[in-house]
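S., here's the first fold you wanted:
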Amino acid sequence: MLSRRLSLRGSIRGHLNQKTVDLALLGVCLLGLIIFAIHGPYGDGDIRVYHKYAVEFWAGKHAFHSLPIEYPPLSLLIFTLAVLPPIHDYATIFAIWMGAAFLGGYFAFIRFSSRHNATLYAVYLLLGATAALLGRYDIVPALLSVGAVWAASRRRFGIAYLLIAIGVSLKLYPLVLLPILMIEHRRFLVTHDRPWKRPVALGMLFTGGLLVASFGIAILLTGWDALNPFYYAATRPLQVESFGATLLWFGSAFGFPAITEHGWHSYNLVGPLDGGIMTLLSFTGLAGLGWVYWRFWLGRFDLARAFLAAICVMLLTSKVFSPQYLIWLLPLVVEVEGIDILWLLICVCTTLIYPVEYVNDHIFGTVGPLPYSNTMLGTIAVRNLVLIAATLRVLLPGRSPIRSEAPEPALQEGSLSISGD
């Protein structure tokens, strides 16, 4: 009996010691990002924008009537973190908040996935989002999306819809995940011989209603200028890291010029082929998303894979692929692919692009023609081609239907809420 107690005590002590070591290592990594990335020459650029939006909304000349141009209105809740507490070094304050979100995701992986996946989560994000992890707020919607996977896999559909709704209201992109969640909800209810139309419709209306409400309140505050994020997104050119810009660069080898440009808070490529490329990508994106939804309807994907596939398709066919967008993918990559050479290569290339190539090419603060080097554009092309390969592998996992390994709890009598409990 005594030996058993000593063994148990030693096991607990060893577990706590390992947990302490892990947290210490993560703390050192985050501190390094704050010192060398956030307080580097260009690391706090977006935080300055966030801080400006927050100050203008809460205490500016047009207080409560000044909203972000390129972000959904609810993003102001995140931007406000840059002034809480209201001290001079707002960049560090915001980075600490995002570091807390990152650590929250680490513990969430331990709780809802596995300790192994929590380690992979940290490795992927620290490797692939080195300069963007603490200087952007994309970690928040990314964790909301993977949280929706965990909630739906445990048949807590009400929580899953809520997480997607908040994510959409912060960053818009999780909207492409809503049809997948609705299909999963329907499948569960049909499997248990329950009516599905009303619960699934309620989930869709809840998500859409929160988005409409957030923009509706914004319209009451600022008028139709509240819809600027949609106009902003529609009129942007091809951002230099997008796959469309890579196609434009390839076209320059055949006599179609690719001209550098800075605008819309990003570094871009424009040229005579850009209109055709954007149209092609739009149709490809719609077709790709339709393929994902259809394959998921047939049961060829599990939920996490369908989420990952939809976001991969969206990013590859989008006009913009900023470095922080990789954060949207990586928590889902952990759940679907685990440790994988293609995704590690994507992470390495993304960090080489930003900040390494951006700094080496002296792009920040450049006035006039931007000095993109062939090394930078080539690295972007390699990253995008590898991402295509990784996406095809996600889209074509095999012929046999993929079933969730998580046990499905029985649906209780009288419970017809959108949660599915």
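And the second, which I think is the more interesting of the pair:
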Amino acid sequence: MYHIIIVEDDPMVAAINEQYIKQNPSFSLDACFTNGKEALDYLEDHEVDLAVVDCYMPVMDGITFLREVRHKNYPLNVIMITAANSGAEIQDALRLGIVDYIIKPFSYERFQTAMERFRYAKNALPDTDRIDQNTFDSLFRGQGDVPPNAYDTQVKGVQPQTLERIENYLAENASEFLSCDEIANAISLSRITVRRYLNYLLESGKITSRIDYSTGGRPSIRYRLL
């Protein structure tokens, strides 16, 4: 079993990440943190295999956290999950050796692909001091692509009645891009539930999304029916 931590200051996103992690029996969620400094302090006394890290956080952001992890030579693998999609930020994360980079909003299947990519790469390394060329090529071909059926892609917990409520509200406001909070408040559901169904609808190709940077603070993700 692999030990994993979440580093995310948005409680709703952290809760979704936690739900997704707990559906994969190969991983044990050890702790959650709201910034990189808290996670870095934790790593001083705990061994962790994988961290799911946001980019925009107070106190210490994700890229700074990554730099500190590499500086201290912690054997930690990192998946970045963030609304940040600029080329410079992605290049910084890649140079610092991330396992995967997932741009919000994301689906259950995409999240599981990232975790299984890490697990597949770890399992592909033989327990030996020497690695032959074929093993090395297999590991790095396609950044450690996950073989078919490596994990169950079934989306769990999608209720037709709840899905219909969300789709109907989006249809009634088809000309607008709506935030998760706006939808949740309008139809009296929790933000976590609405976000999970929006991710499902995105993966199904029924809605589209865009990032709103006009809020002046944390970028807001907004959704609309196609």
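Why I say that: Strands lie at 2-7, 27-33, 50-53, 77-82, 100-103, 178-179, 207-212, 220-225. Residues 108-124 form the longest helix (17 residues).

Talk tomorrow,
H.
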